[in-house]
Amino acid sequence: MRLPSLSSVFRAPSAQTSRTAAASSSVSAPPAGIRKGDTGPKVKQLQDALVKVGYMTRAQVNTGPGTFGPQTEAAVKKFQADNKLPTTGFYGDLTHAALKKALGSTGPTPTTPTTPGGKFTKPTVISAPSPNQNSRGGTKIDTIVMHHTASNNGAGDLSWMRNPQSKVSAHYMVDRDGKIYQLVGDDKRAWHAGKGELHGVPSDINSRSIGIEIVNDGSGKTPFTEAQYKALTQLTGFLKQEHNIPTKNIVGHADVAVPKGRKTDPAPNFDWNRLMRGIS
């Protein structure tokens, strides 16, 4: 993915941005007992909390704050599923306790527990929701696509993928220090791959795949860091296990983009052998 120059994405924070950040830091879980069809400040509080932990986007909340509609219900169900709770969509005592725990932790957002019997747990991710997403339309996830951001500055890359005007995103971004940011939920369609094919068959790659952006300029001269390889191995291993993705479908953008040669991601010097050894 080719991202813009840093000068085009860095802007001095506005007063509104500062107020929003301050409000975000004080988000708390509302009392239990909220259901679809409810309206009011408690629903708005629930929506703000779901944005904070990465299950709704600010754009979704702004379309109808304070109304417990289909999007809020879907977010509650996804949160319940990820925390091994009954997926009723009703915000009851168990969901309240889990949300309170998620919001009360310091640092990155708590993530999906270990899959029973699985080798990998989901690594810690930092929630950074992007509005650049839509529905998969029921398409099953069966592919992982690796990208380079075309830059070595994760802050700028993250800012661009969260900008509605960019119309690009990925499910995850792995920064130079190994931190993993989640921009789009696995169940949603991120906008990371354009026209493509899988193993020679034309396909809507975005609908069937999870996209991972690795912060690297893609020149083939800038090494991927040790921290990136460790984080990427844990993340890819978990996603492969969680979605039952065949190894042959863990590919680079260069492998699926058409016409051939349009992309070089993740980069000529990316160590595929190391990654594959780590997830096998």
UniProtKB/TrEMBL annotation:
Domain Peptidoglycan recognition protein family: from-to ranges: 123-257
Catalyzed reaction equations: Hydrolyzes the link between N-acetylmuramoyl residues and L-amino acid residues in certain cell-wall glycopeptides
Catalytic activity, EC: 3.5.1.28
Hydrolase as UniProt keyword: yes
GO BP: cell wall organization; peptidoglycan catabolic process; peptidoglycan turnover
Biased composition (Low complexity): 11-32, 106-124
Compositional bias (Polar residues): 127-137
GO MF entry, a single one: zinc ion binding
Record's protein name: N-acetylmuramoyl-L-alanine amidase
Species of the source: Pseudomyxococcus hansupus
